[in-house]
Structures are given as C-alpha cells and as structure tokens.
Amino acid sequence: MPLMESTTELKFFKCLVYFYVILLSLSGGLQIFFGATFAWNHLSYSLVLANNFWIPSTILLCLGPITYLLCWLGWNAVSKKNRNFLRIFTILLVILVCIQFGLSAWSLALREKLPGASKYPLDTSFEDFKANMAEHTHIWHKMQYELQCCGVYELTDYYRTGSSHSGVPWSCCSIPKQSEHTACQSFHQRGCMHVLSDTIRERLFYVSIVLISAAIIQSMGLFCIIQLTILLHDEDKKSIDQAEMPSTSRSRERRERRNKELLPLAQTSKVPDNQKY
What phi, psi does 214 have (nearest 5°)? Predict the structure, then answer.
C-alpha cells in the first residue's frame, strides 16, 4: 500500500512539472514578444537619444530563447527521471528568476534618470537637424510628427533661426497637409525631450512589469521540481534496497543450510564422558 501511494504521488508531481514546463514556454514566448516590441520602438529614436535605455528590453528579448532551452532541459529531465538534470534545471531557474528581479529593479532605476540623461544627446542632435532641416527624411521630422512635439524644449527653440514661424519645420504642424510650412495653421507646443522621456519611462515601466510577472510565473514551479527530485531519490533508494534484499536472503539461506549440514558431524564427533577412560 505505501508503495502504491508513493507511485501515485510521483506521477502526480511529474504531471505538475510537465504542466509547469509548458507554462514556462509560454512565458518565454511573452519575453520574446514584449522584448522585441520594446527594443524595436526604442531603436526608432536611437539616433537621437544614444544611451543605455535600450538594454533592459534587449536583455528581456534574449531571455526568451534561454527560457526555451530551460524548457527543453526540464522536459528531458522529467521524462528520463534524471535527478542530476532536475538539479541543474532548478539551479538555472533560480539564477534566471534572480536576474529578472534584478533587471526589473534596474529598469525602474533608469526611469529616474530621465529627462536629465536625454538633455545633452537631444541638444546635440537638434543642432545637426537645424543645419539639415530641408532633409525631409531626417529622424527629427519622423520623431516630431509621430510624437506630436516640436523642438527640444518647446516651439520657441526654432525662433533662434528666424523671427517668426518661417524657421519651424513642417513636422511641427498639428495637422500637416504637405511638407511646407505655409500649410501649417497651428504647431505642437510641447518639446520633444519631455514627450520622448515620458515615452521611454513608460516603456521601462512595462519592461519591469513583464520581468516581474515572468519571474513570479517561473518561480511557481520550483517547489514541484524539488519535490519530484526528492521522490525520485526515494524511488531509487527503494529500488536499490529491493535489489540487495534477494542477495541477503540467499546468503542467509546458504548459512542455514551449511549449519544444518555441519550439525550431524558436530554431534558424532562428540565423545561420551563414560568412554573417555
């Protein structure tokens, strides 16, 4: 009866770990999706804002394939009942979870550096843009049009190049109809530094949320993996004991048989006391 209960418990935890590996693969897919999305959005303005704010989303993207490798290791460890693979799987999972919690904290810390960290890169890029304003494919045109902003700090940044709106590019128009400033009736008033900083801060917050969520999901199955490792150890121990038990019984039987064979010889070798003299 105890053996049957142990087998049932072992099957139960094997199913739980299998389910956990499937859940782990889903979290890896989400890491790849969100990491690629955030990294791609940041690369859109990387020429304007050269910094390390892209690193958390890129690491999040790289953690996805690593998670799939862990899924492969965990699945094989369970199917082959390999306790060593399960131990390695557990250790790597703990390391992965710790990395994600640390990366999440770092993402939140990076948010606090904005908008100060974006001031110098934007000022430098803006000076280059003013010298090449006629180039309609310039990154500043794309950024001002998509983010609905104008200048680094505000619209008046362009007044340095002219005394009126003649120095304001078409991408600053609220509703641009063509790439000519004469079509503009109104302009975006907010500077791009504040809009871009808010956008990056929001993305870093989402990266942090995804990392924490993935770490929580991935840590949920650690108990099941450890329990399965213990059960496999107990099963191996019972198998060894059962293998040694027949040999022990045979040795005992041989000793008893030998004792029975030697007993008559011992009895006949005894001399009666009245025949000694």
Answer: -65, -40
